Amino acid sequence: METLLNSLREAAQLVVACDPELLQILWASLRVSGMALFVVTLVGLPLGAAIALSRFPGRRLVIALLNTGMGLPPVLVGLVVCMFLWRSGPLGFLELLYTPAAMVIAQIIIAFPIVTALSVAAIQRVDPNLLLQTQALGASRWQTFKIAVRECRIGLLAGIMAAFGGIISEVGAVMMVGGNIKGQTRVLTTGIVLETRMGNFEVALALGLVLLMLSFSVNLALTVMQQGRGTR
After folding, report:
1. pLDDT digit string (tens) for 92-115?
2. Domain ranges of the chain
């Protein structure tokens, strides 16, 4: 118990002092997960809306695949991405393995089904009579899309929050494709694993505290957007 308390105290001191190495790892996490979340949101939300508002053969199968993808094992994603980016793999010539770009790719694959599937579910809950009335009044597909998104924005933001939580706390895939290289691909989760293995519990706890504060801050901002707009 004394070891835990001492580690917590030293961890808090490192966080308060804004240790340069902590800040570097924090920035790497923000850069990787932020880019992945931006790409997934940019692609996943419109695709989810298109699937929800369209009728085509195999639609239920596509939705079932997306829902299954929400439980995709991150280590499996890391393995597949690693095999593709390996020197002898199909994309080995790009030389992306053990770079932040490879980590972004892995996190995009993990987060994409979450954002898309939850977008489909949210937009499907919009009153179909509202959309039919909108189309009857001469609204274009783009205008119908905007109305659907506005009506279910709370659910869409929930999907984005779920995706962010899934990738910012992920360790298996990013370690496999990133390599946990100091100053380049070391993020908060992989840093925690490394420092724990080395017995540096105070540093590992400091990284954990920063990870919790980062996750809370981002989700708080999204929750304010979600609940603030939802109460109008």
Report:
1. 999 999 999 999 999 999 999 999
2. 2-230
Which one, of 43, 32, 35, lies nearest residue 66 by Cα? 43
CA distance 150 to 133: 16
- Condensed to tens digits (0 to 9), the pLDDT of residues 126-140 reads 777 776 777 676 777
Task: Look at the block and give the residue holding tokens 């992945």.
Answer: 36
The answer to whether residues 188 and 25 touch, using CB atoms and an 8 Å cutoff, is yes
Task: Say which CATH class 2-230 falls into.
Answer: mainly alpha
- Sign of the CA dihedral running 97, 103, 105, 106: positive
> Which amino acid is it at 63?
I
What 3-state DSSP class applies to 155? Answer: helix
Quote the CA–CA distance of 79 and 20 in Å, as a whole number: 32
Question: Scanning the structure block, which residue is given the tokens 């002898």?
Answer: 88
